[in-house]
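Example complex used in Figure S2.
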Amino acid sequence: MQTPLKIAVVGSGLVGSLLAIYLKRAGHTVHVYDRSPDIRTIQFSGRSINLAMSHRGWRALDEVGLGDEIRQIAIPMDKRAIHIVGEPLAFQYYGKDGESIYSLSRGLLNRKMVSLAEAEGVEFFFETKIWDVTLADATLHAGDTERGEWNELKYDKVFGADGAFSRVRHRMQRQSMFNYSQEFLNTGYKELNIPANEDGTHKLDKNSLHIWPRNDFMLIALPNLDGSFTCTLFMPFEGENSFEALKDKDSLEKFFATYFPSTIDVIPDLVADFFKNPTSTLVTMKCYPWTYSDKVALIGDACHAIVPFYGHGMNAGFEDITILNQLMGQYGDDWDTIFKEYEISRKPNADAIAELSYRNFMEMSSKTADAKFLLQKKIEKWFSAKHPDKWLPLYSRVTFSYRPYSEALAIGDQQKAIMDEIMQIDGIEEKWNSPEVEQKIIELLS
Amino acid sequence: MQTPLKIAVVGSGLVGSLLAIYLKRAGHTVHVYDRSPDIRTIQFSGRSINLAMSHRGWRALDEVGLGDEIRQIAIPMDKRAIHIVGEPLAFQYYGKDGESIYSLSRGLLNRKMVSLAEAEGVEFFFETKIWDVTLADATLHAGDTERGEWNELKYDKVFGADGAFSRVRHRMQRQSMFNYSQEFLNTGYKELNIPANEDGTHKLDKNSLHIWPRNDFMLIALPNLDGSFTCTLFMPFEGENSFEALKDKDSLEKFFATYFPSTIDVIPDLVADFFKNPTSTLVTMKCYPWTYSDKVALIGDACHAIVPFYGHGMNAGFEDITILNQLMGQYGDDWDTIFKEYEISRKPNADAIAELSYRNFMEMSSKTADAKFLLQKKIEKWFSAKHPDKWLPLYSRVTFSYRPYSEALAIGDQQKAIMDEIMQIDGIEEKWNSPEVEQKIIELLS
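Predicted assembly (892 residues):
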């Protein structure tokens, strides 16, 4: 057991709320600060992409007994449903034996997490703006405005779970030897909506993550409990097919009629939603170190914000908590070691999932529509079924395993080199599941 | 001619002062702000690496007629002098026909530049702290402390020439879609000193940049006008041979006796200077965009801080001014276009010199002591002399030409691939200047 401490968590998002529960369970007094109002009291913003919870996320919830409660608001998706103009809908299964990722509304989940944390005895302070942190003594500085009066809030430890634009990190950035990068994609996104049928059922297959892959841009849709789908249009800001180019009702409708004709009937409020909802940016943020002495630690998006194309932002943040909690169990009151081991073990994995997420835009927006890529996936699945000890596909290692992300990236690169060679085999389309191909893969693996 | 404007330059360093002169000459009212006292009134800090001015830097000075005045305080260095334990001193010439880089004291040069700017009619405001900038209307916010009272200083344009930790950029960083990275090396540096002989002459060859290459670490020395040399020890912060390991007089003296025995006699104040002078960090900083509308622009280290191993930090910053000035001549009052073209044309070159500088640590600290590398340099020089139209060595293209840095990087990579192949030739040591080798290079070039 650890000596009970007074701990502040900045940020009441998913990672902040769950971390607060873990810290409370470990016997600490936990205060959570957020500059926004209580999410349970407000309308959602129209700029969220639905979450896809997978193994790593569930493990963090199950460890504190919350998995089952959250499963009640989650919808399993065991496959991609690929929409290509002029072709029948095609399903691509994610894993084996019904392995699924789970669609969750970010807002709904966050409300639930805050309530669960409160029930545990965590105290929340909403609409409280933290402008700065004194790192050396874990003191928060809160006030109404950045240039106004501030008051000091002294803690034993501070966790920065305040997202990609973290104020806690902002202070750490000013330290010497603090490595930092933020890189925005030229692709942005906008939320759209497919409402439920009148009887409350879903208009599209409920247990699929729907993708309309169009190379430079794509539309995706994830199911909600109420029969609707939250859609996200990913598209460049500028250029031929871009947010800039869709400047009025006419250009928008013409664009959707050309590229997404099958959505016309199911997105009735296209024009209104498109021009009402904001166009949001996508950023990859990396930094190091993540901790300051035994006083302050960053967690989740605050230290590793990634683009959403692997659906692992929340999963990676929840895994931070799992690892931190393991280290708390291992090292007790030695917070110096806990923080040091935490950042050393998590950093390469955060970098790896950032890279995998960045690459996955190409996979989702282009390759899912490519026959050669689908054949490759089929070969991998076939070989993996015959030799599960020799081959775990990259997607499965990332999503349906607890193996480190860094391992997934490295092994994924090896597998890619092997598959590039296999796909060169003459007549691979016909003999993809032949003993010759099987032998060749085994040979290349050794 | 441009319409006269009221322009603020934040930062009175080398780039800020020279930019101010250019802007004044173009007819503008120019105010320069600096948080530090007037450099002409203070002692230098003991943390500077001497500058190595080369073609790009001289061009910017000559364009406004200042080159000759600065040449009077510059010492030409036409070669590297390599110090290896147990071997005679070896000279490696930088270019051909006496092409030289020029050693300059940063402090001395900066003092001179401020005086020259003042003589032109530029107004300087020292010890004036700029904490923030309102980008949309080019307004500076100055005050004694970050959290105290500020007053507003309104301009037509603001230039941020305030270095790697620029406050002007700091405001731009908070914009969406602003890409930014800062990466610190694990290697730091410390200034040491080789005093003059009693008669004012130099203790080592005056017209050389001296290097004691020791792989992970190295010592360098650049000549000063007064007969002394400014030395810089580059070394990892942690590890076997590191700043951390040199914690007392004994360990320091033992280290120097082992690795730099030839310096013992010429660095008399080693122990005192080592423990008095700070250990400084080395950072590469990249960002984009560099401008905000037609109101604010970053220049020099404020938008592209690089490590010092190519000696091009100041040269690159001065070249920013050359390009900006060309665009001012070309586009007149169309500052939107001036700023846009400026950042588009300079960004790839800033990235290229950052990469070249990063790589050059290896060249200086390891390769200069490697016989194979020296042979390669010899072959390049021989071939270049025979075929000047076909081969300009990378170092010369960077240092003794005005070709874009990005071109130098790209062509340098091609040349490296060719030389890698040439160095594989059996018996290259004997036939390095044979017709066979000459033909092979010509063949690989086409």
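Chain B touches chain A through twelve residues (CB under 8 Å). Chain B has a mean pLDDT of 95.
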